[in-house]
Design brief:
This protein is α/β, with parallel strands linked by helices. The chain contains 20 helices and 27 strands. The strands form 3 sheets. Strands 11, 12, 13, 14, 15, 16, 17, 18, 19, 20 and 21 form an 11-stranded mixed sheet that branches. A 9-stranded parallel sheet has the order 5-4-3-2-1-9-8-7-6. Helix 18 links the parallel strand 13 (about 495-500) and strand 14 (about 525). The longest helix has 29 residues, at about 245-270. The chain is globular and about 75 Å long. The two termini are about 45 Å apart. The structure holds alpha-D-galactopyranose and zinc ion. Alpha-D-galactopyranose binds near residues 180, 351, 359, 389 and 402.
Length: about 725
């Protein structure tokens, strides 16, 4: 997916409603030991695009600015290997040495996202071929195939030479491999190398053709394969592809990207054992690659954060995007995903917006206070450091309008002083805050199989996995419910509630884990289309919701896509409130022990159950069988969260975000006003304000785009 598509998809979703007057105190659960990392408040820097005569001045200015480190060289392959096998790192050593002399550390990027023209001229087989059969051209970046062995070898070669040259260079602290894997308009490749790679991957996964034929059901439309070489990639044909094959292809593409990253990782681990290694991406947004797999062997997640870019593309182009103050939940979701991908480990923002952002159209300059606010938002959700993109602003190239800390003429940008202030403040917060854990008591299930399988067969043109993730996340964000993002196969026992919209594919492992969670006292809230398919993308041969039927205490009577006909629900019990309209889908439920919390009000299904709650073991399982129109979905989800015992520490209006991190016995509560107006929040206890040093309690005012960092100590 690219940013534009993702943001359009997710933002249908903003559901800024349903805040309830909570007053009780939130108690944090686990704590995270501080990692032995230097403080990282840096900038993305391009000596390869900057006249050498300016390097010294840049380093001096950066040091004065407060910058601790840079990230460099991730697109400089052609300068490091000007012709095949001939390497030149002299210029890069010079740049690193100058920076080091000013006490600025360096994260080096390996350059495999942008190969040199000599390479693509000599090896034209390395290009991505799109689903429609178009071969990408080498003018931009991210146009190379993840399966191509030769390209992977050439990428490892340059990474190896870099690692050898910089393993013991003072100032080098770590590595970024490649740049934003799969984040671009043609993120899956369908070339010959990929097709062959897919066939080999299938052989390893299934062992025999017989198993593949059975698992996919190739008897349908006479697709029985008698040789691995016959297996195609799912490119346009006279009808849609076999859903099992298509899902496996998506898994293969993710695997190929992860495998190619890991080839570079092996080399860096061996040659540079004292350096950290990461890759920058935007988990969930880049949903072609499974972020849990991508980061599994890396030291920590780093991700790229451009809230202003979201404002352009989220709802439409031509300046009609979501206002910047409504972007907050989308950005919060990205941060929560970044933190959750490695089980709560603090992450690094590898690129943070520092001015107007976009290519070729760009966002407005963030309002005064917003750049600082967004930095605090990242930290509130688990960031341990931030690199601002970029130090200067290019006067040439595709990103001439991606504004940095310096203007085109190297004068101070509008955000210059604000970023410098933010860096000073964040450094002063210290490692106890920056390395601490996040205190989520609830989790949102994000599952790549359900995401990909829903994209392959959405059932209704308006149904999109990312949209429902966004609706549920945005609704709970508005109610100040902190969420981890999980894939539901891990230990869920630390959560009070697990929310699972559109969990279309449910594996045995997930079903077992959810059953154990509910049995042990957890609350599981499922959306419609639960457990329709198994991991092979076969429809389960049992009444729905399949593997979780006993836990949910319901059986589906029918599932109904909604087009022109209308449907709505009447609420009962703890959900009692105004009737709500349904969009796109209605699962009609028959209870088998569950309590009915809402019934349909129209047509053949009038009076039949739409939302149910079942007691299973010590916990509860709630089935939200229809896609309720906002704001009703927000009201329902927040009542369910509150009933499960989730209470934010601070009573705050919509648009004011409350997030909590904790270290040992110390909690830090962030109150972030994303609106352009002063807002009043009510503190249940007396807090020390860590930025200002004074104590606060009761009703306090947070200025427009203002930040309060509160500690009970
Ligand atoms: C991305 C990339 C950077 C740069 C910025 C701005 O996230 O990683 O190289 O392109 O965005 O576009
Ligand atoms: Zn390919």
């Amino acid at each position: 997916m690219d940013r534009r598509v993702f943001l359009k998809t997710v933002s249908g979703t903003l559901c800024l409603s349903a805040v309830r007057p909570w007053t009780l105190t939130f108690t944090a659960s686990s704590a995270q030991p501080a990692a032995a990392l230097p403080q990282l408040f840096g900038a993305d820097y391009y000596p390869d695009q900057t006249d050498k005569s300016l390097w010294e001045e840049d380093a001096r200015m950066m040091a004065e600015f407060g910058i601790t480190n840079v990230r460099i060289a991730e697109f400089a392959w052609v300068l490091m290997e000007p012709s095949e096998g001939h390497y030149d790192f002299v210029w890069l050593h010079n740049a690193v040495d100058i920076l080091h002399a000013h006490k600025i550390a360096t994260i080096l990027g390996t350059p495999s996202a942008a190969p040199p023209p000599w390479l693509t001229e000599k090896y034209p087989e390395v290009f991505i071929v799109s689903e429609q059969g178009m071969t990408l051209s080498p003018e931009g970046r991210r146009f190379t195939c993840p399966s191509n062995k030769l390209y992977r070898k050439l990428s490892v070669n340059i990474a190896t030479e870099m690692a050898k040259s910089f393993a013991n260079t003072p100032g080098i602290i770590g590595w970024q491999i490649d740049n934003e894997y799969t984040l671009g308009p043609n993120s899956r490749c369908y070339c010959k190398s990929c097709r062959e790679g897919f066939q080999g991957w299938l052989k390893a996964k299934y062992g025999s053709l017989d198993t593949i034929n059975k698992t996919w059901g190739t008897a349908f439309w006479g697709q029985v394969y008698s040789d691995f070489s016959q297996i195609p990639a799912p490119t346009p044909s006279g009808g849609p592809p076999n859903p099992g094959m298509a899902l496996d292809y998506d898994r293969y593409q993710s695997h190929a990207n992860v495998a190619s990253m890991e080839e570079q990782l092996v080399v860096l681990r061996e040659l540079c054992p004292n350096h950290f290694v990461t890759t920058n991406n935007v988990p969930l947004l880049a949903d072609v690659v499974d972020a849990f797999d991508l980061y599994a062997k890396l030291d920590f997640v780093s991700h790229d954060n451009y809230p202003g870019f979201a404002s352009i593309h989220a709802q439409g182009e031509g300046g009609n995007g979501v206002p910047l103050d409504q972007i907050a939940p989308i950005v919060a979701l990205m941060h929560d995903a970044a933190r959750s991908v490695k089980g709560g480990k603090p992450f690094l923002i590898m690129e943070e917006q520092s001015g107007k952002a976009g290519q070729p159209i760009f966002s407005p300059q963030p309002d005064k206070g917003q750049l600082r606010l967004w930095s605090y938002q990242a930290v509130a959700h688990g960031a341990m450091g931030i690199n601002y993109f970029r130090w200067d602003t290019a006067t040439f190239g595709a990103e001439q309008y991606w504004h940095g800390i310096l203007n085109h003429d190297r004068s101070k940008s509008p955000g210059f002083d604000e970023i410098a202030q933010t860096i000073r403040e964040l450094k002063a917060l210290g490692p106890e805050v920056l390395q601490s854990a996040y205190g989520a008591q609830a989790a949102l299930c994000f599952d790549y199989d359900s995401d990909w399988a829903t994209a392959i067969q959405s059932g209704h043109p308006k149904i999109k996995y990312a949209t429902d993730i966004g609706v549920w996340y945005g609704s709970l964000w508005a109610g100040h419910v902190g969420l981890d993002i999980v894939d539901a196969t891990k230990d869920l026992s630390r959560y009070k509630v697990l929310f699972a919209p559109l969990m279309y594919v449910v594996s045995n492992e997930q079903a077992n884990s959810i059953r154990e969670f509910v049995g042990g006292g957890g609350v599981f809230v499922s959306g419609f289309r639960l457990g329709v398919k198994n991991s092979a993308s076969l429809i389960v041969k049992m009444p729905l919701p399949g593997l979780l039927r006993d836990v949910m205490g319901v059986t589906l009577i029918d599932y109904v896509p909604l087009y022109t006909e209308k449907q709505s629900v009447k609420f009962a019990g703890m959900l009692t409130g105004p009737d709500a309209d349904c969009q796109y889908w209605a699962d009609v439920l028959k209870t088998e022990g569950a309590e009915v919390l809402a019934t349909y009000t129209k047509g053949d299904h009038t009076g039949q159950a739409a939302i149910t709650s079942n007691t299973f073991g010590k916990g509860k399982a709630i089935y939200v069988g229809s896609r309720l129109e906002p704001p009703a979905i927000g009201r329902v989800l927040n009542i369910l969260a509150a009933t499960a015992g989730i209470r934010p520490a601070v009573e705050a209006p919509v648009g004011v975000e409350v997030a909590m991190r904790h270290y040992g016995q110390t909690d830090t509560t962030f109150v972030l006003n994303h609106t352009s107006k002063p807002q009043t929040v009510t503190l249940g206890k007396s807090y020390k304000e860590l930025l200002a040093g004074f104590r606060l309690s009761g009703a306090i005012t947070v200025e427009p785009y203002g930040v309060r960092v509160l500690s009970l100590a």
